[in-house]
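Page 42, continued from yesterday. The earlier attempt failed because a stray header line got pasted into the input along with the sequence. Redoing it now with the clean sequence only.
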Amino acid sequence: MFILMIQKCLYIMILYIIYIIIYKTSFIHYHIKGFNTIRKGLGQMEEKKSSKQSLVSLKDKVKQKLRDEIILNNLKPGDRIVETEVAKKFGISQVPVREALRGLEEEGLIRTVKYKGAFVTEIDKVEMYHIFSMRAEIETNALEIILPNLRKRDIGELYDIVDRMKFGKPEYLLQSDLDMEFHRTIIQWSKIEVYTRIWSMLTGHIRRYITALNPKVQILPEEVYKYHLDLVKLMEKGDVEEVQEAFREHIMKMVK
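This time it went through. Structure tokens are written below.
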């Protein structure tokens, strides 16, 4: 009898051990499967995220390239931009090209005609006068905000940009880039986001206008340097109204 009881106990223990083994194996399998599912899902999310980032990057590259071509007048007013040709040139799909063209249309550099495609917009001198006026208004408002709190290191940063105008290569695009950097810095210091957005949208039109219609305002590098040096010196003095007037005159002389 005693032996029989021991045998039953051993039998129950064996069954219990088998149960535990099966349960734990199933539990581990379930969680491993769940983990693999989660990992797979995360991987797919990363792939989608990476794909989206890649698409945005391609769109920005195409947009910048086309913008430069328009600004430099390589793509002239009325020229047609064919989506398939641009995609072929860059070796990419039409999706980022389409997005880039949409962005340029929002900036007013191209217009889309139904069933015909995208065309570089014409340049209207009256419209450009108003664009320059808007830029002058934004910059003078920004100056009113930043001048009372301008620090020595801020002035030093502007002097650094101006120095590059003097010692950089005498190329129009470089001078134009430095000019934009100088004025963009002032706008960004105002910390008024709407100023930054509108100003950035206007600059493409302004550079295009100067390149295409007014080569006479493409002043010599040494003159660009001197104009901006004088502006920084005035900012250093801190007279808000005097600085605003100097900036307004500097900007509006382009369309006189």
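Notes: The beta strands are 80-81, 110-113, 117-120.
Reminder to self: strip header lines before submitting.
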